[in-house]
Amino acid sequence: MKIRGVILALLVAGGFYVMMQTIDEASSHPFERLQEQQLNGLSPYSFITFRQPGLHEQRAVTWKVDQVEEVDRLLQFLQAYDYERVDPDSLELFDDQPHFTIDLHDDTGNRMTILIEEGVLIHNDRLYYEVVDGPLQVDWLMEFMISNKP
């Protein structure tokens, strides 16, 4: 009888833990919390890579910006939104259309990709976050890309 009670208590505690994890993953988070979760206290982003898709079978244009002021400017823009984690299978991102992307890189190899048209952040090709209180201001992002283009 005592063993059944212990097993029941463990099942209830385990169920409560799983429920709290599910609620935490499903709720929206500010950008600062995403950075804490993703970087785990490692170094901040150090440079940006922009990718502009090519038109009519032309090659995509890619360039890098390593100015700290521009990295900070982009991070401040991203902080204006809340994000929620989504299942990548539920998103229809990888169709035939190439995307304008901005990649934030840190010195340890972590990367966060921003798909401008979709309002999605992708961290290290594993964690997908969607803008909750969006859409992203695409005009600002496009102006940011143009102002940083060599």
Short description:
Residues 37-43 have low confidence and may be disordered. This protein has 4 helices and 8 strands; from the N terminus they run H-E-H-E-E-H-E-E-E-E-E-H.
Provide key terms for this protein.
150 residues, alpha+beta, eight-stranded antiparallel sheet, 27% strand
Give a description of the structure.
The chain has 150 residues and is an alpha+beta fold. The protein contains 4 helices and 8 strands, in the order H-E-H-E-E-H-E-E-E-E-E-H. The chain has helices at residues 2-26, 31-39, 68-78, 138-147; strands at 29-30, 45-52, 61-65, 82-86, 101-106, 111-115, 120-123, 127-131. An 8-stranded antiparallel beta sheet has the order 1-4-8-7-6-5-2-3, with helices on one face. The longest helix is centred in the N-terminal third of the chain and has 25 residues, at 2-26.
